[in-house]
Amino acid sequence: MREEEYKRLVEEIRNCTKCRLHATRKNPVPGEGPLDADIMLVGEAPGKREDELGRPFVGRAGELLNALLGLAGLRREDVYITNVVKCRPPGNRDPREDEIAACLPYLIRQIQIIAPKVIVALGRHAGRTLYSLAGKKWPGIKRAHGRAIPARIAGVSVTLYATYHPAAALYNPELRSVLEEDFRKLPSIIGGGRRGKSLLDFF
Q: Is the pTM of this model over 0.85?
């Protein structure tokens, strides 16, 4: 039942024309990962490489994300990964409000289908969107990052956890240590898991 519902959702996303982004995309990027994942990671929008392959976080930011997951004792295949917006904004610009609104029903259904225990918001757009869905005021990424809060989104009780988008650390290397520390906290939030290594072990 869950698998069939998810297949229908993916097909809807692949055929979606609800906003302007469908006109410039190569491939929509629904998301990937186990449908019974305890952890869902939600980014902002696909980039160039994601648009080419139809998969989330497969560019340089994806390589960093994989390493960060390792710090939390997690593998990429342990988590479900998606974005707020399923198609790439031209030039990797920020998604616009109407584009986020058009895609929001898809994210809500993903949360309902997967019913994760923890949702990790990657970046300010994902954080603001998920806080809004939870009926909570977004304090900004500087205040929200590294904080776990109880929330209820689309009827699903979750722990909502925000951090910076991995791409931000590519442009601002000082954020790498912040991201590292935020991901090191994940084992205690999800209820166990080993302590990860240093990012120096991955790069």
A: yes
Q: Which CATH architecture group holds 2-189? A: 3-Layer(aba) Sandwich (3.40)
Contacts of 6 (CB under 8 A, 6+ apart): 35, 113
Quote the CA–CA distance of 107 and 85 in Å, as a whole number: 8
Q: Which of 148, 144, 114, 141 is nearest to 40 (CA)?
A: 114
Q: How far apart, in whole angstroms, are the C-alpha atoms of residue 7 and residue 13?
A: 10
Contact (Cβ atoms closer than 8 angstroms) between residue 57 and residue 68: no
8 Å CB contact between 149 and 121: no
CA distances from 50 to 21, 45, 133 (A): 14, 9, 25
**pLDDT per position as a tens digit, 14-64:** 999 999 999 999 999 999 999 999 999 999 999 999 999 999 999 899 999
Interatomic CA distance for residues 122 and 68, integer angstroms: 12
Looking at residue 35, what is its pLDDT?
97
- Grouping H, G, I as helix, E, B as strand and the rest as coil, residue 56 is coil
CA distance 100 to 26: 19
Q: Quick one: three-class SS letters along 143-202?
A: HHECCEEEEEECCEEEEEEEECCHHHHHHCCCHHHHHHHHHHCHHHHHCCCCCCCCHHHC
Q: Give residue 164's pLDDT.
A: 97
Could you give the angle at the alpha carbon of 66 between the alpha carbons of 123 and 175, nearest 5°? Answer: 45
Q: Tell me what percent of the residues of the chain surpass a pLDDT of 70.
A: 94
